[in-house]
């Protein structure tokens, strides 16, 4: 069995070797405790197995109930069995999970920031009571059905349609790249109607629902993404999310997920850096550790600087989110910058590892491959660039 070796796990109580600015001084005791608890879970449950899970394209459903017990599912939501933690704590947890693997952090995001968040924000009291406690406990997995084969960055062009038939709704259409759909008990599906775009709570045992995992993949292999087909899926009138109409519904959930990515990407970058740093101290060439060479030290310094800046940006964004002052373009700054920098850090870490860096014993190449997916979902680099371009100029350039 392939296992990840290289850098030993960071002490649960200590800072990362990448920390050049005493970052932990900016965190409360409660925030540090949350980070430590999730880091321990990753060290014990994910690190020893992730190389094999990635190789086998296996998502460890056996960990879902444990994540529920830890309060990681719908972590930032209040009530209905959810933990009600702060945005900063949710971010710190996301960074630790993605230091294990993007696929595991993505599960928590799809479950909590997308599916549960949609029901929590826009659902009826009956929908909340039926699904949120079970999803928070990890007893039910959820999915979020927005993207389609021909509607990715332009969700307004979606073709999935829900028509009224008496008191029922009948859904027809296709969705693509839908995380966890083949494992889920329920999903939130967005569809065109005669009254605009609406969301629907869809139990996956409804006749006409079909989810097919997309395979093979070269990224996010320890996760599941699916094609979804909806063929005359009949739902009661009560299945519609009653409290939102239009794209502001799914976008409000996407912004929750995008926020988590700010932190997660830096977790993957930090993990790659720490492994490369440890390796550089042990790898002897020309009679001494390669960590003693100027070019290697420059690589390590450059990576550490970007990790420190990325975590500061994530923390500032989280503090604004907790204070209620966060704006949409703030999230785009973090998502665009931190994912882009994280990919470069992982690639640079691989160069320090040399040929050994392409083996599963080291995480950098796996993280880099995963981050190519993270770079694309929840808004591509191009979309976030245009959001920021409009913020700077006042001129939309989407069309």
Task: Please explain how this structure is put together.
It catalyses: glutaryl-CoA + oxidized [electron-transfer flavoprotein] + 2 H(+) = (2E)-butenoyl-CoA + reduced [electron-transfer flavoprotein] + CO2. GO terms for molecular function: fatty-acyl-CoA binding; flavin adenine dinucleotide binding; glutaryl-CoA dehydrogenase activity. Pathway: Amino-acid metabolism; tryptophan metabolism; Amino-acid metabolism; lysine degradation. The protein is α+β, with helices and mostly antiparallel strands and about 400 residues long. It folds into three domains: about 25-135, Acyl-CoA dehydrogenase/oxidase, N-terminal domain (Butyryl-Coa Dehydrogenase, subunit A, domain 1); about 140-240, Butyryl-CoA Dehydrogenase, subunit A, domain 2, CATH 2.40.110; about 250-395, Butyryl-CoA Dehydrogenase, subunit A, domain 3 (Up-down Bundle), CATH 1.20.140.10. About 50% of the residues lie in helices and about 15% in strands. The longest helix is centred in the middle third of the chain and has 35 residues, at about 250-280.
SS elements, strand count: 11
Full CATH superfamily name of the largest domain: Butyryl-CoA Dehydrogenase, subunit A, domain 3
Total count of domains: 3
Strand order of the biggest β-sheet: 4-5-9-8
Report the end-to-end length measured between terminal Cα atoms.
50 Å
What share of residues is helical?
40-55%
Unreliable residue runs: 1-11
Q: Could you name the CATH topology of the largest domain? A: Butyryl-CoA Dehydrogenase, subunit A, domain 3
What Rg do the Cα atoms give? 21 Å
Overall spatial form? globular
What would CATH call the architecture of the largest domain?
Up-down Bundle
Number of distinct helices: 11
Major sheet details: 4 strands, antiparallel
Query: What portion of the residues fall into strands of 2 or more residues?
Result: 15-25%
Roughly what is the average pLDDT, rounded to an integer? 95
- Structural class from helices and strands? alpha+beta
CATH class of the largest domain: Mainly Alpha
């Amino acid at each position: 069995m392939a296992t990840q070796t290289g850098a030993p796990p960071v002490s649960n109580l200590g800072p990362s070797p990448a920390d050049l600015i005493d970052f932990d001084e900016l965190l409360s005791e409660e925030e540090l405790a949350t980070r430590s608890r999730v880091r321990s879970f990753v060290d014990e449950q994910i690190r020893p197995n992730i190389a094999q899970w990635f190789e086998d394209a296996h998502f460890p459903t056996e960990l879902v109930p444990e994540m529920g017990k830890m309060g990681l599912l719908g972590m930032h939501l209040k009530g209905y069995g959810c933990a009600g933690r702060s945005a900063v704590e949710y971010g710190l947890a996301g960074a630790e999970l993605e230091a294990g693997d993007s696929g595991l952090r993505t599960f928590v995001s799809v479950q909590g920031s997308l599916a549960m968040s949609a029901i929590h924000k826009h659902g009826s009291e009956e929908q909340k009571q039926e699904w949120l406690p079970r999803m928070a406990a990890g007893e039910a997995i959820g999915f979020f059905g927005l993207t389609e084969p021909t509607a990715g960055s332009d969700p307004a062009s979606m073709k999935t349609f829900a028509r009224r038939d008496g008191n029922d709704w009948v859904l027809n259409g296709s969705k693509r790249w839908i995380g966890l759909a083949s494992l889920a008990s329920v999903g939130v599906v967005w569809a065109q109607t005669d009254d605009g775009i609406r969301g629907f709570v869809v139990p996956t045992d409804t006749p006409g629902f079909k989810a097919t995992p997309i395979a093979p993949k070269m990224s996010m292999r320890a996760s599941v993404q699916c094609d979804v087909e909806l063929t005359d899926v009949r739902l009661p009138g009560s299945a519609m999310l009653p409290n939102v109409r239009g794209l502001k519904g799914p976008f409000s959930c996407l912004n929750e997920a995008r926020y988590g990515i700010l932190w997660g990407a830096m977790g993957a970058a930090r993990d790659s850096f720490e492994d490369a740093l440890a390796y550089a101290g042990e790898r002897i060439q020309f009679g001494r550790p390669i960590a003693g060479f100027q070019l290697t030290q420059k690589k390590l310094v450059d990576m550490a600087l970007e990790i420190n800046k990325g975590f500061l940006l994530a923390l500032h964004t989280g503090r604004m989110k907790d204070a209620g002052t966060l704006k949409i373009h703030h999230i785009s700054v973090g998502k665009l910058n931190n994912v882009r920098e994280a990919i470069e850090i992982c690639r640079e870490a691989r160069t320090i590892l040399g040929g050994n860096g392409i083996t599963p014993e080291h995480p950098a190449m796996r993280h880099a491959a995963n981050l190519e997916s993270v770079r694309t979902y929840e808004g591509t680099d191009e979309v976030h660039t245009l959001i920021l371009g409009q913020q700077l100029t006042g001129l939309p350039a989407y069309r």
